[in-house]
Amino acid sequence: MKTVAFPSLDPILKGGIPEGDQILVSGPPGSGKSIMAMQFIHEGIQKGENGVFFTLDSEREYLISQMEGAGIEVARLIEEGKMDVIELDPQDIYVLLDEMERHVKRLNAKRLVIDSLSILYVYCGSYRNLPEDLIAFLEKTKYQPPITLGSAVKKQMLYSMMTKIRHLGCTTLLISELAKNSNWFSRDTISEFACDGIILLDYHILGAAGVTRTLSIVKMRRSNYLEGVHEFRITEKGIELTRD
Predict the structure, then answer these.
(1) Any idea which of 99-113, 118-132, 210-224 has the lowest mean pLDDT?
(2) Strands (DSSP E) found in 15-104
(3) Those residues with Cβ within 8 angstroms of residue 18's Cβ, 6 or more apart along the chain or in another chain
(4) What is the 3-state secondary structure (H, E, C) of 133-170?
(5) Each residue of 52-98: pLDDT tens digit?
């Protein structure tokens, strides 16, 4: 089995992420999800694997500025055709999928980041994003079809989307916002079952002592990993483990 190196997490992942897997990166706002994803792309480039960072809820220039601040020479890497940061409109998920495929082929990308799955889930519930045959059926009924649909349909649509993204053939980090003290590992409550692995990030406010940040590998289907809760800190280089 081939693995994709992730040097920042090597002490925990024991060899990296299985090639082609989808990994859910979950945590509350400010826990370090986007920074970890940027490192994943950057460390891939250093291993000769091009990457694309797809954002559904941030401006491209803002993310590039954030990456540059973390010491990643994004402008140079984009110019060299080794990576790109792409804004996607989540309102039409079929156009979104076509755009993803186009950019993956353009860069011959091996690593993807999608930020965030939570935004994608919201738009999976839009009537306009249903398959065309189902839309045609609903329009033939005597009842007005709903503008948005229930959670069961949204989960089915998201699962279908994740399957299509998997077919792009890349190793993928899927970012999900998560409420503090949630009983789930994702906002949508379905991607945690569909993904091959889960990395859970969190932070704990300790009063005058400051903030402690933690990372746990919840599952990694095809790889060994170090169990437990691991502390990390965010530096100018990104995420750094503070102990093994």
Answers:
(1) 118-132
(2) 17-18, 22-27, 51-55, 83-87
(3) 1, 2, 3, 4, 171, 196, 220, 221, 222, 223
(4) HHHHHHHHCCCCCCCECCHHHHHHHHHHHHHHHHCCCC
(5) 999 998 889 998 998 888 788 888 999 999 999 999 988 888 888 99
Residues 36 and 70 sit within 8 Å (Cβ to Cβ): no
94 is written with which tokens? 């079929």
What is the domain partition of the chain in residue ranges? 18-200
C-alpha to C-alpha distance for 100 and 107, rounded to whole angstroms? 11
Q: According to the model, what pLDDT value does residue 208 have?
A: 67
CATH class of domain segment(s) 18-200: alpha beta
- Record the pTM: 0.88
Q: Residue 96 to residues 88, 147, 155: CA-CA distances in angstroms?
A: 6, 20, 18
Which residues, 6+ apart, have CB-to-CB distance to 55 below 8 Å?
63, 85, 86, 87, 88, 115
Compute the distance between CA of residue 28 and CA of residue 109 in angstroms, rounded to an integer. 28
Task: Look up residue 224 and give its two tokens.
Answer: 């060994």
Q: What is the pLDDT of residue 135?
A: 56
Map residue 111 onto helix, strand or coil. Answer: strand
Task: For residues 37-42, give the mean pLDDT.
Answer: 93
- Nearest CA-CA partner of 60 in 84, 38, 87: 87
Is there a contact between 16 and 43 (Cβ–Cβ < 8 Å)?
no
Q: Give the tens place of pLDDT for each residue, 182-214.
A: 888 888 889 999 999 999 999 988 776 688 999
